[in-house]
Specification:
- The structure holds two protein chains of two kinds.
- Chain A is of the alpha/beta class.
- Chain A has ten helices and eleven strands.
- Chain B is about 50% helix and about 15% strand.
- Chain B is built from 14 helices and nine strands.
- In chain B, strands 1, 2, 3, 4, 5, 6, 7 and 8 form an eight-stranded mixed sheet that branches.
- The longest helix of chain B is centred in the first third of the chain and has 24 residues.
- Chain B is elongated and about 85 Å long.
- The N terminus of chain B is likely disordered.
- The chains are: A alpha/beta, B alpha/beta.
- Chains A and B meet through strand 5, helix 5, helix 6, helix 7 and helix 8 of A and helix 7, helix 8, helix 9, helix 10 and helix 14 of B.
- Strand 5 of chain A pairs antiparallel with strand 9 of chain B.
- The complex binds zinc ion.
- The site of zinc ion (ZN) has 8 residues of chain A, from loops.
């Protein structure tokens, strides 16, 4: 019985630090939750969701935009804004080198992509975060791009959707990163004043300064199943309280239970959920 | 000889030292210089090395500032209230869950003017024993603390009273209960609401400006910081543990993150630096409070001269322009 229980526990709450990217070995991929061998193609067609156990793998930022926008069509905005190195920050490598590596690895300029288009016929702007870009961390550029997206939504009377995936504020830009929380929140106050909708979609993982600012400020906050969502990271909490965290702690379902989310929505239902919400808020 | 500015960082000095020592070595191994000349130059360089060593010893490093900001005798919010205000009436509770002792709020009179005070509190007034610190959770608020702060700030808005906040926290409490009750949501809510509260808000970073837990009462019209206070996205120890995989590298992290008052002013994050008495605020609470009072007074006079619209626009622009980026 003991071995069975342990196995089950593991399948429900995968290790916090486990890499949840799709491991591709040829045409097969092993599900990180149920260990089922899956065809890579099959997984792709199913929006990176395990057909057997419904485990939601990470989905890249552009696939998210295609998933949400009508006919998968969108016009990217503000893609030419890039980071500088305001602090001259060096840890194991200089920050500019880290940025360069992230650009090469992701093919993106920064940790968020902003795009305009329509969703269910409603005019929207969607910001989609790139987790593979330095952990989706929020520095000056993420702050600037989201603030601009909000201001564009106000000027063009569009709804705003932000898909979050982030470890929090970017340490290499110090307190400048911290202040992006205030900057974006102030812009959201303006969006709120003109009564335009903001839907926040939280995906795995959304923690730190991103959760403690725009990700929690939607008119509607929804999350994908099993996503890690919180303010403090699980390891920091464990170190502080010196005990193991309860099972399922800081997962989407936990947040729903504690009243922080409107719903936990499966990936294939996300688009429909947003359309219904926008129909309600915009028609 | 090389000019060393007083604000130059320790790395630069160390590098300078190394360079000079290298030169000494090279000189002493060179044989084509007359021995008297070599001796003269050697002596010159040795003197310079000693001078630089002295400078390094006397220099205040960013980590020294961190230690100062965390000094157990530093004035806390209740001390400032006692020294700056009259008729303080504490306002407790968030009306939703509980009363968080890590944040104190209340009505008071500052120079005869009714104001609302909100601030982190790390121990008790006149008693700073371990149990006092524990009772205040070391100044680490839970969601109910931030929600209490917002409730009281809304009260200030309703009755058109200015708000003064004092920031001094290691950060928002990272615990199971805090997460269950929505630590992230509580902080986020304060950020959006403080951006549009119509009354003047003066923010003073008095000690540790610990990340989101500090910012959650830190959105305002004027942001001051005490000379030895810090403001950062993560603690130097936390940053070192993540980026250097070694918490002992805190000194290096503190230096890299640009968290001191003068660096923050340069980055446009704070408006001005409030000087502390010689040796630090912990040595003279009264004098510190007197200087703080002058700055608050100056800020309120300025903010009174603006209309609500002007003030809110200014507040928006203030945060809107923070950041560094370029266009490709
Ligand atoms: Zn599976």
């Amino acid at each position: 019985m003991a071995w069975f229980k342990r196995n089950k526990e593991k399948s429900i709450a995968p290790e916090q630090n486990e890499e949840k990217v799709v491991k591709t070995e040829g045409v097969f991929t092993k599900c990180l939750q149920c260990s089922q061998m899956l065809f890579k193609r099959q997984l792709e067609e199913n929006l990176q969701v395990c057909p057997k156990c419904n485990y939601h793998f990470k989905l890249d930022a552009r696939s998210r935009l295609k998933l949400l926008f009508d006919n998968s069509e969108y016009e990217e905005i503000d893609q030419n804004i890039v980071s500088t190195d305001p602090l001259g920050f060096v840890d194991s490598k200089p920050y500019p080198e880290r940025l360069k590596k992230a650009r090469e690895a992701t093919g993106e300029n920064e940790a968020v992509i902003s795009a305009r288009g329509s969703l269910g016929g409603h005019k929207v702007i969607i910001c989609s975060m790139v987790y593979d870009f330095i952990g989706g961390s929020m520095g000056s550029v993420v702050g600037e791009k989201i603030a601009r997206a909000i201001e564009a939504a106000i000027n063009e009377r569009r709804a705003l959707i932000i898909v979050s995936a982030s470890g929090g504020a970017r340490m290499m830009e110090g307190a400048l990163s911290l202040m992006q929380m205030a900057k974006i929140s102030a812009a959201l106050a303006r969006l709120d004043e003109v009564r335009l909708p903001y839907i926040s979609i939280l995906t795995d993982p959304t923690t730190g300064g991103v959760t403690a600012s725009y990700a929690m400020l939607g008119d509607i906050n929804i999350a994908e199943p099993g996503a890690l969502i919180g303010f403090a990271g699980p390891r920091v909490i464990e170190q502080t309280i010196r005990q193991k965290l309860p099972q399922g702690f800081q997962r989407s379902e936990f947040l729903l239970e504690h009243g922080m989310l409107d719903a936990v929505v499966e990936r294939k239902q996300l688009r429909n959920y947003c359309i219904k919400a926008l129909d309600f808020m915009m028609s | 000889m090389i000019e060393i500015k007083p604000e130059v960082d320790r790395n630069q000095l160390e590098a300078e030292l190394q360079k000079l020592e290298q030169q000494l070595l090279e000189l002493s191994t060179k044989h084509n210089i007359p021995i008297s000349e070599l001796d003269k130059r050697l002596q010159e360089l040795r003197r310079r090395v000693e001078q630089l060593q002295e400078q390094i010893k006397s220099q205040v490093t960013p980590m020294d500032r961190v230690r100062n900001a965390r000094h157990p005798d530093r004035p806390y919010t209740l001390d400032y209230i006692k020294l700056l205000c009259e008729d303080f009436q504490e306002l407790a509770g968030d009306r939703r869950y509980g009363n968080d002792p890590a944040i104190v709020c209340g009505m008071a009179k500052f120079r005869k003017r009714p104001v609302i005070i909100v601030g982190h509190q790390k121990a008790n007034l006149n008693s700073r024993k371990t149990e006092d610190r524990k009772m205040r959770n070391f100044g680490m608020p839970k969601p109910e603390g931030y929600r209490k702060a917002l409730r009281v700030m809304k009260l200030a808005e309703k009755f058109n009273r200015a708000i003064i906040t004092f920031i001094d926290t290691p950060g928002a409490y990272p615990g199971i209960d805090a997460e269950e009750r929505g630590q992230a949501e509580a902080i986020a809510r304060n950020l959006i609401e403080m951006a549009r509260i119509s009354v003047p808000i003066v923010v003073i970073v008095t000690g540790e400006g610990g990340s989101g837990g500090a910012l959650a009462i830190g959105v305002g019209d004027v942001i001051y910081i005490l000379e030895n206070a810090i403001y950062s996205v993560i603690s130097p120890e936390g940053c070192a543990a993540i980026l250097w995989k070694d918490a002992a590298k805190a000194e290096l992290a503190a230096q890299s993150m640009k968290l001191t008052a003068s660096e923050l002013k340069e980055l446009g994050i704070v408006d001005d630096i409030i000087p502390e008495p010689k040796g630090g605020a912990h040595l003279d609470h009264k004098q510190t409070a007197e200087t703080v009072a002058e700055y608050i007074d100056k800020a309120l006079k300025f903010l009174d001269s603006l209309s609500v619209q002007e003030r809110l626009l200014r507040r928006y622009e203030k945060f809107r322009k923070i950041g560094s980026f370029e266009l490709l």
